[in-house]
Amino acid sequence: MILVTGGTGLLGSHLLFDLVQSGKPVRAIKRKNSDTNMVAKIFSYYIPDARDLASEIQWVEADLLDFGAMEDALEGITEIYHAGAVVSFYPKDHKAMLKVNIEGTANLVNQAIDHKVEKFCYVSSVATMGRAENNGLTSEETYWVTSRKNSVYSISKYGAEREVWRGMEEGLKAVIINPSVILGPGFWNDNSGLFRLVWEGLKYYTQGVNGYVDVRDIVKAMTGLMDNNIFGQRFICSSENVSYKDFFTMIAKYLHKPAPSVNVPMALTSLAWRVETIRAFLTGSKPEVTREMAITTTQKYTYTHEKLCQTLNFKFRPVEESIREICGFFLQDHEKQPTGSGSGNDNNG
């Protein structure tokens, strides 16, 4: 039996689709208020009998921080895919994010060792990597450096990754995968929100560069590494490095919208997050732009996927191909409901 955490999120739901369609017995944890309907919706993008297939998932209520509930969830489990995490760039979420992502992972690693789980795959992030000097390519050998540019999210994932490495030292057969920006359909208000922003008329772009990867390629890499018993290593999972301008232009092309045309220099992004912080404080609302967001969008982050490609003879989908298909799903959903539904930011279940 395979256990999946974060199954109600973008990556987790695609992982569940792959595992269940392959005929593997799967148990997925969810928190009390989590909505599993989005899982069936994700399935429906790829097959007609989505609800029948989704019904094969064994759901259990548990929280990564609830040791007793997780103890029960691990009964009879031989493999774990740990994709559950809190993702947020808002200051009010930082404390909870650090606790869930680090302590929750530590709890799961400890229980996996106690239950003699045979295989463990942890979904980390390229945010745990160091930044290559002189705009070079970041690889698995580019190690973390403490910096004010590190987001609290990246700190939480780095701490969680260290718990997995600690588990390996204690005998856990584990592998770590480090995805870049994940591209996938359905979660139009959260993980897939960049598509919604362009649809709503995004006018601005920055000079930043980032790596992007199709969610299905991450699933393929995860299952490939586990099936081939490749442990004790980490792998960057990123298809291409693309500027924000080109990325948004591709989305606009396939959504039949004008491409963003106004370049926002770094000085203005620094001003924007400060002004937005004051506005949010005065109104009691969430800031639309945070310091961490502003820093990220002005940086040039580039990654190499050479190690994964060589290890698994892996081939990535081109970013434009992924964008074209995801835009098709967006337009399909828009005919039924303008902005889609679902939340993928908090998947510690």
List the helices and strands and how they pair.
Blueprint: E1 2-5, H1 10-21, E2 26-30, H2 37-44, H3 50-54, E3 58-61, H4 67-73, E4 79-82, H5 94-114, E5 119-123, H6 152-169, E6 174-179, E7 181-183, H7 193-199, E8 204-205, E9 209-214, H8 215-227, E10 234-237, E11 240-243, H9 244-255, E12 262-263, H10 266-283, H11 291-298, H12 306-312, H13 319-336
Parallel strand pairs: 1-2, 1-4, 2-3, 4-5, 5-6, 6-10, 7-9, 8-12
Antiparallel strand pairs: 9-11
Helix pairs in contact: 1-2, 1-8, 5-6, 7-9, 9-13, 10-11
Characterization of this structure:
- The protein has a 7-stranded parallel sheet with strand order 3-2-1-4-5-6-10, sandwiched between helices.
- The radius of gyration is 20 Å and the shape is globular.
- Helix 1 (10-21) links the parallel strand 1 (2-5) and strand 2.
- By secondary structure, it is α/β, with parallel strands linked by helices.
- The protein has a domain at 2-183 and 212-239 and 303-317: 3-Layer(aba) Sandwich (Rossmann fold).
- The model is unreliable at 270-281 and 338-346 (pLDDT under 50).
- It contains 13 helices and 12 strands.
- It starts with a strand and ends in a 13-residue tail after the last helix.
Rounded Rg = 20 Å
The major β-sheet equals: 7 strands, parallel
Q: What structural class results from the helix and strand content? A: alpha/beta
Beta-strand percent range: 5-15%
Q: Specify the CATH homologous superfamily of the domain at 2-183 and 212-239 and 303-317.
A: NAD(P)-binding Rossmann-like Domain
Count of DSSP helices?
Answer: 13
Shape: globular
Please state the second-level CATH architecture of the domain at 2-183 and 212-239 and 303-317: 3-Layer(aba) Sandwich
Question: How would you write the strand order of the largest sheet?
Answer: 3-2-1-4-5-6-10
Name the CATH class of the domain at 2-183 and 212-239 and 303-317. Answer: Alpha Beta
CATH fold description of the domain at 2-183 and 212-239 and 303-317: Rossmann fold
Sketch the topology as an H/E string, one letter per element.
EHEHHEHEHEHEEHEEHEEHEHHHH
Helix-residue proportion: 40-55%
Distance between the termini: 18 Å
Work out the number of β strands. Answer: 12
Question: Which regions contain 5 or more consecutive residues with pLDDT less than 50?
Answer: 270-281, 338-346
Q: What value does the average pLDDT take? A: 86
